[in-house]
Amino acid sequence: MDLQQRINAFVKLGDFLSQFSRENIKKKDTVVHNNLFFDGFIHQIKLAQEHNGWFTKKNVLFAIEGWSKQLNNNNIKLWLDKYNFNNEDFKKVAIIMAGNIPLVGFHDFLSVLISGHSVLVKQSSNDKQLLPFLAKYLEYVEPKFKGKIEFTEGKLEHFDAVIATGSDNTARYFEYYFKDKQSIIRKNRNSVAVLTGKETEDQLKNLSEDIFRYYGLGCRNVSKLFVPKDYNFDAFFKAMYDWNPIINQAKYANNYDYNKAVYLMSEFDMLENGFLMIKEDESFASPIATVFYEHYTNIEELKMKLTSLKDSIQCIVSDGFSDSEILFGQTQQPNLWDYADDVDAIDFLLKI
């Protein structure tokens, strides 16, 4: 199976996924093997929601929409164009996936297979309904993938390299356990936004997407704001308002009530609007329904500070602050070449 065959298979998968969006779910006559898979995938989406209360239908479909937009021939070729795919020494690569948001491990899965390797997947128990079904679809559109995709719930064995994602604590375990393997090991990261007070209403509304999408559970969700001294949060809270129905989700509401009670009993200063709390705190990782903030007085000093803390930061959302910044509202719409932790997975996979 050559590179173009692998690309073609994922393009067909993207075409299949394009039938499932937040706006509607509509069957297309042109999608291959649709009679076998369309109704089944609707069922898997339902199972994902039932298994994990954070995986609402809208959030699952948002994730699927994102992948359907990325998996087209032009996008994949633009992503892969700079690499040399002459390697014929294919290996088996294990992936240990997180489960915080739907299909969060799909990019690693895609990267391993598009590189020509076989994949051994250990999924999180929180997100195990969608990917095996999509893997089966891939095997139908490209039968040469059969035998190259394996899922396991047991101990990982007989593999050559590993990509593992987890918390800071599990990362220490991974580093010890996989010390004799070539690896990419990811730890906790959070995303931040740098505000100046000059943001437009649209920019702040877009920021609300970065904060609330997936209930803030992703490493690309903004959990920390850096704001000028004496920043007025009125415009910020006004821009957040469209997300107020989020408090009707029981798991989110329970977290909101619990964290609010903790802050009040601890006599912490915080601002809140009935569905979001903001609290001054130097930490990056804020609890659900909370965004931390910190004041700055000098932009250049803030740049140096964030550079020194880059290993804790996934994304910086801003307008004119950094060359690597992400525009407001775009954190949950990464391109194929936007690698987690800024570690080039394809480069790694082509060298093992």
TrEMBL record:
Question: A Pfam family this protein belongs to?
Answer: LuxC
> Is NADP included in the keywords of this UniProt record?
yes
What UniProt keywords are attached to this protein's entry?
A: NADP
**Entry's Gene Ontology molecular function annotations:** acyl-CoA dehydrogenase activity
Q: Which GO terms describe its biological process?
A: bioluminescence
InterPro entries in alphabetical order: Ald_DH/histidinol_DH (IPR016161), CoA_reduct_LuxC (IPR008670)
Top-level taxon of origin:
Bacteria
List the protein's name. Acyl-CoA reductase LuxC
The organism's taxonomy opens as: Bacteria, Pseudomonadati, Bacteroidota, Flavobacteriia, Flavobacteriales
